[in-house]
Write a structure and sequence with these properties.
With 394 residues, the protein is mainly beta. The protein contains three helices and 28 strands. The longest helix has 7 residues.
């Protein structure tokens, strides 16, 4: 799912304990301490306890639009002039991060730590903050996702390996070994275990037609992308990138095309901070690998839009290691900035109809450790919904 890769937060912009995962370098517990995280990477061990880094002065970006009609409307949007589109908090859930929409867009699933929880667990809730339900209460949970029928879910947990070290979803060198993948019904019943080993398997998502489960697997310290049937059979390695650490992968709609983030093994070993990351696309048979970002910065936590060519992701702006959300386009180099806040904004996801941007932020957290929680931004004016929605809006 979005990143399980975590970006380590430095002591200056820390996130508590976990990196941003799922393609991010690690999700952490709901509080942010100091340090950058990597998307879809906290494996949210989650939810980044991110301590706000020094305030970064935000300059409004005025992007010139040279793309087709949908991109043009995006560049004309107030989001591109230094002002956010209407944004509101999702009430009641508390510390939470890395959530994903149900196929009908009415519910979300992800990691949260609520009263009585000794760790982060998978929860579902309605997008208005009602009908909150915990799926699992054992071990340490991470990435989760809906199947396209909306009746079953897939999620990550260490619940069957209490004998193994707890590990740290935010540290690629210490990912929880024995993190396994499971499916269940929406109420947490009928749990089926998909993997059975002592490897780290997380950062999970599902192809929009339900044919494949996509996930990250770490073997002997090296991560690559894998896919398997919904029953856990016939796992196939998708990426073979010895010089890169890929993760936080998702399918574009109506396609076998995958978007993911990756960092260089050499940069990780050199302890670069923030860790440079790039975005890529690849077919799920491992062919046609393309690098879609070309700067030297941190580009993390990508997620595809329902129109099939736009995507949202996180850029770490300097100075100040400021995490902000952007809209990109496979058909254009232009990027549109969507968030303007000196707090952490990350783990962006777009609703199936293209109306909402869901993300985690520490923007309203109290002073001290800055807890992440969930927000919705109305991006309907950007017209990144599926073709049928675009057509009806004309």
């Amino acid at each position: 799912m979005k990143d399980t890769v975590w970006i380590r937060l430095s002591a200056e912009d820390s996130v508590s304990g976990r990196e941003q995962r799922h393609g991010d370098v690690g999700r952490q517990n709901g509080t942010r301490q100091n340090g950058p995280e990597p998307r879809r990477t906290r494996h949210i061990g989650l939810i980044l306890a991110m301590a706000v880094s020094a305030l970064a002065i935000l300059a409004g970006l005025s992007l010139r639009d040279a793309r087709a009609q949908s991109a043009a409307s995006a560049s004309e949007n107030p989001a591109n002039s230094g002002h956010e589109l209407p944004t509101h908090i999702i009430p009641n859930i508390g510390p939470a991060a890395e959530f994903y929409f149900s196929p009908d867009g009415k519910s979300i699933i992800g990691d949260a730590k609520r009263t009585g929880d000794d760790s982060y667990h998978v929860y579902t809730l309605n997008i208005d903050g009602t009908n909150i339900r915990r799926i699992n209460d054992h071990g340490d949970d991470a990435c989760s996702y809906y199947f396209p029928d909306g009746q079953r879910i897939v999620w990550t947990s260490t619940k069957d390996h209490p004998e193994l070290p707890k590990g740290n979803y935010s540290d690629p060198s210490d990912y929880p070994q024995g993190a396994e993948l499971y499916t269940s019904k929406l109420d947490g019943s009928e749990v089926h275990r998909l993997t059975n080993n002592t490897n780290y398997e997380a950062e999970v998502s599902v192809r929009p037609d339900g044919q494949w489960i996509l996930f990250g697997k770490q073997v002997n310290g090296k991560i690559d992308l894998w896919r398997m049937w919904p029953d856990g059979s016939e796992p196939v390695q998708v990426t073979h990138l010895p010089e890169w650490e890929p993760g936080g992968a998702f399918y574009f709609p109506h396609s076998n095309r995958i978007i993911f983030r990756a960092w260089k093994v050499a940069d990780q070993e050199a302890h670069k901070h923030p860790l440079p990351m790039s975005l890529f696309t690849i077919n799920d048979d491992g062919t046609d690998l393309k690098k879609i970002t070309n700067d030297d910065g941190t580009n993390w936590s990508p997620y595809p839009a329902p129109d099939g060519h736009h995507y949202v992701f996180v850029k770490v702006l300097q100075p100040g290691n400021n995490y902000e959300i952007y809209l990109g386009d496979l058909n254009s180099p232009e990027q549109v900035r969507l968030t303007y806040n000196s707090a952490f904004d990350g783990f962006p996801v777009i609703s199936p109809d293209g109306h909402w941007l869901l993300f985690a932020s520490s923007r309203d957290a109290a002073a001290g450790p800055h807890t992440l929680t969930l927000y919705l931004q109305d991006i309907s004016s950007l017209h990144v919904g599926p073709p049928e929605v675009k057509a009806s809006a004309k």
